[in-house]
Amino acid sequence: MSKKAVEENGGMNLGEIGMIRNILMGEQISKYEQRFIDLQEEINSLKGSLLKEIEHNKNRSDSALDRIEEKAQKRLSKMEANMLDGNKKIEEKINQALSENRAQLGEMLIQLGQKLMSS
């Protein structure tokens, strides 16, 4: 260390200042360092637990969504089948009504023809 730096520090070099600091506050610094280490370990432990819980909840959510999707697909399939069945019934009724109307129209035309021939 330069002579000027030693004079600015009151005649002590940095090594001596560090030694005095360790003598006066060494025990407290060690306690704080241990406390920081303990807190870091606790944080790491909590982080691990939290990550496990998040993964567990994600898996549960995925399973629940899969079940919901399966139920929705079954309901949609049922609705589609019911709709197709309803359409088929309506088509049958329309065809039956058309047949009946054609038959009635045919009878009316025959009657009209007979009236025209008899008049």
**Count of DSSP-assigned helices:** 2
Number of domains: 1
Assembly state: single chain
Mean pLDDT over the residues: 89
Radius of gyration: 48 Å
**Relative strand content:** under 5%
Strand-pairing-aware structural class: mainly alpha
Q: Runs with pLDDT <50, length 5+?
A: none
N- to C-terminal distance: 143 Å
What summary fits the major beta sheet? none
* Number of E strands: 0
Helix content: over 70%
Outline? rod-shaped
Helix/strand order: HH
Describe the SSE topology:
Elements lengths: L2 H6 L5 H105 L1
What would your notes on this structure say?
By secondary structure, the protein is mainly alpha-helical. It has one domain. The protein contains two helices and no strands. It starts with a helix and ends with a helix.
Descriptors for this entry?
single chain, 119 residues, 2 helices, 93% helix, rod-shaped
Quick rundown:
The chain is an all-alpha fold and 119 residues long. It is 93% helix and 0% strand.
